[in-house]
Amino acid sequence: MCRPEHFAVTYVINPWMDPVAGADAGKAVGQWEALRAAYLALGHEVSLIDPIEGLPDMVFAANGALVVGGRVYGARFTHPERHAEGPAYSRWLRKNGFSEVLDAEHTNEGEGDFLTLDHVILAGTGFRTELAAHQEAQEFLGRPVVTLRLVDPRFYHLDTALFPLGGGNVAYFPGAFSPGSRAVLERLFPNAILAGERDAAVLGLNAVCDGRNVVINAEAAELIETLRAHGYAPVPVDLSELRKAGGGPKCCTLELR
Ligand code: ARG
To answer: 0.90 cut: is pTM over it?
Structure first.
């Protein structure tokens, strides 16, 4: 995770961002601290990368890389405003014991668009990560990568529309995907938990599940109830300040597998 000390909304690279309204870094740090505390309370280990001044979106650690089986597929950001983040995350990972780091040739935004299940990696494209990056990641990681096409600009990263539940299942908002990708999801995950527009619109799908606990935006009221009914333990958090940049709990979290 990366403390949002330099968090701000100063440019527009997704429909959530409004530089006129701006955002409050102090408030963001408070909410982020509560997210970190939630992970620690659940018994998860949290490592921190130093924030860099001039990179207001660096708090969204999920975009910094994709780490699977100890191998690091490095991020290559779409927008110049975030270009410097890729090398910063790769440097941190190298320094912290990950020796197999690939400097990607193709544009990709790490775990923002790559979600790892036991047998397959789901990969988003349409707004940020290039199709060629899906193939590059598959070849480097030796895991099957399934392409999913995103069609709604509010859900510009796969992790804003879908999250893995563990046990080979997922939760998702069908409206974020092309008809073909919806059909793929129905075939792969016949027992998926489907979320509605209201929960998606508060970034309720940008959640982190460890197989039982689900760290999720508190405003996603219906989805929280559905998860509970399916036997999961929702852990609601308030990340409303970070949502002003288009991010939620998952965006703030890079998983080191
Ligand atoms: N403002 C950032 C961007 O548009 C937010 C990134 C959110 N991260 C994520 N994993 N969805 O790039």
So the answer is: yes
Q: Is the CB of 57 under 6 A from ligand 1?
A: yes
Rounded Cα–Cα distance for residues 1 and 4 (Å)? 9
Q: Which residues are catalytic?
A: 157, 251
Q: Are 63 and 75 in contact (CB under 8 A)?
A: yes
Model confidence at 153, pLDDT cuts 50, 70, 90, reads very high
> What does the pLDDT read at residue 101?
98
Tell how strand 114-116 and strand 233-237 pair up.
unpaired
CA distance 218 to 145: 31
Number of other CB atoms surrounding residue 36 within 10 Å: 17
What does each C-alpha distance from 125 to 133, 176, 185 come to in angstroms? 9, 11, 15
CA angle 22, 172, 32 (to 5 degrees): 35
Nearest ligand 1 atom to alpha carbon 82? 12
Tell me, in angstroms, the distance from the centre of ligand 1 to residue 101's CA.
22
The residue-averaged pLDDT of 118-126 equals: 98
Q: Is 2 in the pocket of ligand 1 (CB under 6 A)?
A: no
Q: Of 79, 226, 52, 66, which Cα lies nearest the Cα of 159?
A: 66
Q: What ipTM was assigned to the predicted interfaces of this complex? A: 0.97
Domains and CATH numbers, the chain: 25-252 (3.75.10.10)
Count of beta carbons in the 10 Å neighbourhood of residue 94: 14
The per-residue pLDDT for 21 is 97
